[in-house]
Amino acid sequence: MGATTRALLVSCFHGGGGSEMSHRLSLRPRYPSMLRRPKGVAVAGGGGDGDLEAAVGTGDQEEEEKVAVFSVSGMTCAACAGSVEKAVKRLPGIHDAAVDVLWGRAQVVFCPAFVSENKITEAIEDVGFEAKLIDEEVKEKNILLCRLHIKGMACKYCTSTVEFALQASPGVQRASVALATEEAEIRYDRRIISASQLIQAVEQTGFEAILVTTGEDQSRIDLKMDGVLDERLIMILKSSVEALPGVENIKFNSELHKVTISYKPDQTGPRDLIEVIKSATFGNVNASIYPEADGRGQHRYGEIKQYRQSFMWSLIFTIPVFLTSMVFMYIPWLKDGLEKKVINMMSIGELFRWILSTPVQFVIGGKFYAGAYKAMCRGSPNMDVLIALGTNTAYFYSVYSVLRAATSENYMSTDFFETSSMLISFILLGKYLEILAKGKTSEAIAKLMDLAPETATLLMYDNEGNVVGEKEIDSRLIQKNDVIKVVPGGKVASDGFVIWGQSHVNESMITGESRPVAKRKGDTVIGGTVNENGVLHVRATFVGSEGALAQIVRLVESAQMAKAPVQKFADHISRVFVPLVILLSMLTWLAWFVAGRLHSYPHSWIPQSMDSFQLALQFGISVMVIACPCALGLATPTAVMVATGVGASHGVLIKGGQALESAQKVDCIVFDKTGTLTIGKPVVVDTKLLKNMVLREFYDYAAAAEVNSEHPMAKAIVEHAKKLHPEENHIWPEAREFISVTGQGVKVEISERSVIVGNKSFMLSSGIDIPLEASEILMEEEEKARTGIIVAIDQEIVGIISVSDPIKPNAHEVISYLKSMNVESIMVTGDNWGTANAIGKEVGIEKIIAEAKPEQKAERVKELQLSGRTVAMVGDGINDSPALVSADVGLAIGAGTDVAIEAADIVLMKSNLEDVITAIDLSRKTFFRIRMNYVWALGYNVIGIPIAAGVLFPSTGFRLPPWVAGAAMAASSVSVVCWSLLLRYYKAPKIFAVDDTAGRRAYHLPKQITLYISHTISLALLLLE
Q: Of 46, 99, 92, which is closest to residue 70 (Cα–Cα)?
């Protein structure tokens, strides 16, 4: 699996790395290479702490680079892309070039002083393709993805308000706001609107916004300044830092002794910044990484601390109020003391409760007033409005009653101070538990971020490339091209490639692959993985936010932001929920009040301490505070958050709620063959020559024709041909007039001879007759599940190469298990029918489509969709990407090409077929929990509101006091979050010993409801972990 991991690392997250072949189709740059300049021109580069490779060729200044994107027409396969890329890279002044055959684009990073766009266009046209310069890359670079942390959102009303405000801002293409993460993700055009203006747009709606990232192609670091800073020193520091190449922006905060610097990691790094600050101040000021945790995590901790303190303070005041109104009244000697009159009919107990409940109402509960005011200002009432209305009604009626008693000699007052105080206390407790629970939904991300080591060992080199020393540094201070020493048992501090040593690295924490992967010189490594044995020297290539670990975290975070379509249901309800509840509350009070005035019910129904107005008021308040829009709003996002995090820990990267929702509906999976059902590394197992010629000469022609192809079969032929030559880097004969036909073969001219390598249909379409002997050989190979590749020279077949691609372990068990899940499996391949049938029979797939071109794969998927099926496509290659996009759910094998990974909805990082089952099973379990969340949230409101309104009171005498209703409301949100949290204990299905009768398995609702009830016992344990 070593190749799997490396391919995933570079293809999925960086688009660059050690494997050159896997990146020809990526528009993202690989490892930075030196500029190719004409002879005699000085090369600009960096020295520093690098080794000899980095130290050689330093110059005075670096030439300006430019990025150009060209439209290239006529490319049909990866070999075409390779030809274009090679032609461009031969030009002087080219820094890097990447070609995307799927979209017909070529991106070139070049030095305008040595080569122009016209020269690049001519070079592409010289190899037989049409090229045209386009300027869309400039537009694309201006489209950024900004993330904001938003404080104060309480329910779906809040998120809808913020989302609408952001969407209405000019330059915003898309905005998504998540209540569970309290974050907004905005795709915007920085030419029209800036990140600061986005923050202003959010703050105009009444919420506070904190910038997480602007999405610009630069890194940002916060440094703590230790020393005395005056205005003169700040000016010196600012000018010194700004003079560094790559520094974009610098901001000083004198009060916190903090400086925030934005920079381009390709040109400078944190150590350079710290050294400049120290030297500019003559050592009087030292800089270090600002001791601050992740902004979102720190905010979450601050919010938890704030609600805990508020709840504890509210208890200090509320418990005496509760005791004096509900307990002490049944203790005679205490009751007499509390009922002593102070002024007219106002008693000591009433005055005492009034004094204690006032700080709870206006100080501790002040946040609900602020939230309600902002909500009403923006015209979207939320839960804060319901709480403020309910508690204010109870409090101010009690104040009125007590004041009336103080001014009257015969009025017996009844107060509800305990109602308002206990309501606020229980709601604060609920919010505290809810935030605790929501914090656990992103636990998987926190665990991923904790994988990075705190320190790293930096190697220092002299000008001749010899190691002269080493020092321990903060891992956050690693810069590009640094060489890091990794000892046995230590963690790899940064993404990079091995320049010295060999070892085995445990990558299970990133990829889920349990077996350690062998590493040697030239192999890529991932930051956060563990070195098992041997010492490694690693050249850092992707640091900080560019690392694979950070990229995985960002992908999971983006997935958690993406809304599932089922969430629209909650959005529609939330829009009318609060106004409807307020209306129901008023109607409840009015109905009971009018009924009491008209004596429509017996007077005995009214408690001794109340009158009909007060009874009606209590029913109205109960209705208002029992309704909970938060439970509806949290039903989907919390489950999606946990599921995406759990999926990542199992090596399954799910790109959002849409993918989860579609995956749980899948009833048909289309598998590609090569690299999906098979290992994807074909090997030559036999060769049959039909003409008298030397075997090595035969393979020289075949390898020269296939060397530019990306197809696994072509690679197998080239690798086999290399074994026939003693030298390590054999140079193949030059191939001209290269023509590639996707899924069939290639035609070339080699040494003035026409060479055709491909399948049977390609030979027939090229006018070559297939002799009987060749046909018999092909049939025999097909029966053995092998692929016969025909080689023809000068229109005559000279031999057949037999290539075999081993089937992946457990492929048969996976197909059987999918059948037990009522999911039909279909195989679509470009290979011949004989090989396809043999593979299908071996893995247990009955429906097979062979000799299919890429566009035909997509057509087959669409045909299945038209027949009413929900289709998933599993593939790994460029030719699978159209089908991956067309399918309801695209699952890309992690070791596949970056084009396939970009096109997919789910990435299987381990490249194991078992993870197809994991993805579907996890999505089904997630959406079962979402459905149960909605059943609970809706059922709670549908049942709770009528009970709070008093429908049971006439027949049973049962009524729900407002403070109990408030406690129930708080518990509803907590229970929904905790039910989603139980997904953390998800275990992937075991695929062995599958029972054939399991196909008739179905979810039984009564059993699942029983399970739901039994799991609620675990809620307190979850919160106390």
A: 99
CB atoms inside a 10 Å sphere around CB 472: 10
209 CB neighbour count, 10 Å cutoff: 23
Q: Are 674 and 714 in contact (CB under 8 A)?
A: no
Helix (H, G, I), strand (E, B) or coil at 261: strand
Long-range contacts of 815-818 (CB under 8 A, 24+ apart): 815/843, 815/844, 815/845, 816/844, 816/991, 816/994, 816/996, 817/917, 817/989, 817/991, 817/994, 818/669, 818/916, 818/917, 818/920
CA distances from 305 to 118, 422, 1020 (A): 62, 20, 19
Q: Which residue has the tokens 């609920």?
A: 430
pLDDT in tens, 42-98: 333 333 333 333 333 333 334 456 778 888 877 765 567 777 888 888 888 888 887
Residues 535 and 488 sit within 8 Å (Cβ to Cβ): yes
Contact 682, 804 (CB under 8 A): yes
Q: What is the pLDDT of residue 176?
A: 83
Identify the three-state secondary structure at position 288.
Answer: strand
Burial of 238 (0-12, 13-18, 19+ CB in 10 A): middle
Of 385-394, 653-662, 909-918, 997-1006, the poorest mean pLDDT is in 997-1006
Maximum Cα–Cα distance for the chain, whole Å?
126
CA distance 122 to 937: 65
- pLDDT on residue 899: 52
The pair of structure tokens assigned to 883 is 């089908």
Do 971 and 1012 touch, CB atoms closer than 8 A? no
400: its two tokens:
């009125």
Short-list 399, 318, 395, CA closest to 364? 318
Q: Please give the Cα distance from 937 to 577 (Å, whole number).
A: 12
Confirm if 849 and 694 have CB atoms less than 8 A apart: no
Backbone angles phi, psi at 739, to 5 degrees: -130, 125
State mean pLDDT over 518-523.
86
Q: What distance, in Å, lies between the first and last C-alpha atoms of the chain?
A: 35
> 432: Cβ–Cβ under 8 A, 6 or more apart, which residues?
304, 307, 308, 311
Exposure on the CB side of residue 291, measured as CA atoms within 13 A: 2
Burial bucket for residue 475 (CB in 10 Å: 0-12, 13-18, 19+):
buried
User: pTM of whole model > 0.70?
Assistant: no
Buried b (16+ CB within 10 A) or exposed e, 434-463: bbbbbbbbbbbbeebeebbbeebbbbbbee
Has residue 680 got a pLDDT over 80?
no
Exposure of 876 in the CB half-sphere (CA atoms within 13 A): 27
Tell me how far apart the alpha carbons of residues 599 and 605 are, in angstroms, rounded to a whole number.
11
The chain-wide mean pLDDT, for the chain, equals: 77
SS3 67: strand
CA distances from residue 624 to 115, 382, 619, 943, 945 in whole angstroms, order as listed: 72, 12, 9, 14, 8
Helix (H) or strand (E) holding 263: strand 258-263
